[in-house]
Amino acid sequence: MDALPLGTLYDSLRRTVSRWGDRPAYAVPPMAGRSYHPDGKEYTWNEVAQGVERMRTRYAAAGYGMGHRVAILFDQRPEFFFHYYALNSLGCSVVPINPDYRKEEIQYVVEHSESSLAISVDKRIGDFHAIAAALGNGLRVVSFENFPDTLPAPRSAAGAGSPDGTTEAALLYTSGTTGRPKGCVLTNEYFHNFGLCYVKLGGRLTMQEGVERMYNPLPLHHANCLSVSTPALLITGGCLIFPDRFHASTWWKDLVATRATAAQFQGIIPNILLKLPETPEERAHQVRFSLCAGIEPSHHEVFEKRFGFPVVEMWAMTETGRLISDCHEPRKIHTRSFGRVSAWVEASVIDDQGSECPPDVQGELVIRHSAEAPRKGFFSGYLKNEEATEEAWRGGWFHTGDAVVRDADGMFYFLDRKKNIIRRAGENIAAAEIEACITSHDKVKQVAVLAAPDEVREEEVMACVIAKNPADVADENGRAKVAQEIFDWCFERMAYFKAPGWILFVDSLPTGTSAKVQKIHIFAAGVDPRKQPGVIDLRAQKKHKAKH
Predict the structure, then answer these.
(1) Most buried of the four, 250, 334, 386, 448, by CB within 10 Å?
(2) What is the dihedral of CA 233, 238, 244, 248, to 10 degrees?
(3) Which residues pair with 449 in a beta bridge?
(4) Rounded distance, CA 289 to CA 309, Å?
(5) Phi and psi at residue 330, in whole multiples of 5°?
(6) CA-CA distance, 70 to 84, in Å (whole number)?
(7) 330 preceded by cis ω (within 30°)?
(8) What pTM did the predictor assign?
(9) Tens of pLDDT, residues 236-273
(10) pLDDT tens figures, 15-55
């Protein structure tokens, strides 16, 4: 199970091409009006190899090699993989750029990563030229769609040696909750480890070599797709299918049209799909299994029965290089269980003092490869931030920041991110639990729960709600009525202190390209959410009803 002898991702590409060259490797579904491949596109492994060699020749001729980084804003185009493996073969690292980033955010990533070259789709290339001018450090900029035959030389000479498993393959920037995002240094070994872990877990996730066609609507500049799906299918000769982003309206049509046998997504997607009207395509697909992070327990069985395939819960982070999954029967689909330890990972639950928690006691999830080699297969560290790296690894364990419990049988259950735990009058409340309850109300489309300050109780529960029918909350009376219904709904189903003390109806919630709600962006820094226009104060009801 040692990933290191596999060498580089380019080495794995060559092995895969030799076995499954004529099989499909990467595909995008058709989408009218899209700027690239509107009729869809599919590349075989042989065609990928040919594209890689074309790019490899150009990069090598220009002097790119060991130690160089190349930033690429490719906007989900499958030709990205031509560059990815070509650069990997030379010992260069790829820095994928989120296409939703503003110019200032791109500038930070390009400058912090010390990228030698920036490649961009034409609609954003003007931003890169402006960034290069502002930095004044010799950054070269070229077009992704009109990639030149002759490239500008890098700013510095390549390092000595040849790439191997320990060589940096990519630099992914985490979204971060405060301050600037951190750059995760990821090696070839890391990617192989993630892919092998996925492939070897088995159970309901059992993959067939040279057969699987996995649909993943999450962006390739995030770990879910690039670190998990991509290497698993590279190793097994499968096909990765990805749209430009998640589209609920074409989801089932895409899965049928692309003959997907598996899917991978985030927990918000089942909630959205379940609220769509029934269509013939939702049962005409060939999907055998799906891998999902964070499906709501109340949706799990309903989803599987309606759509006809298992949703396998998992846990992972960009930094970890492995996943934990509840993939073996009997799965505990009515809970937030996400699996047990395996040959790929040791895990524990600790309290704030670093002591191991007994069964069923909430604490922080910490993981490692083993006591002898705790960091093996993990990220190599946060770029230029050794302090944050060592803080994450304090005590010989990687501290995930996730609040969990473990039962007497060793099963882990997710509660929430520690930062999403609301501390109210001595009670620890998981925002995710309240979100699941409120989302199940038939007048709610989406919700984000967060902590609001409270002078007496430290923090209070606040729910930012998107109504399913905007007309229901179009005026003050409507908002008050629906807020009361939501409050009563929660109060009947959870302990009184978990019911929302504040409710604010909003038109939208900020999300990233991975479809996760970005809670940090709901309110601007320094804004008191309790003082927003239209906010409804229900705290007195919590106090009154608690007495009865």
Answers:
(1) 448
(2) -100
(3) 463
(4) 6
(5) -80, 125
(6) 10
(7) yes
(8) 0.82
(9) 999 999 999 899 999 999 999 999 999 999 887 998 89
(10) 999 999 999 999 999 998 898 999 999 999 999 999 999 99
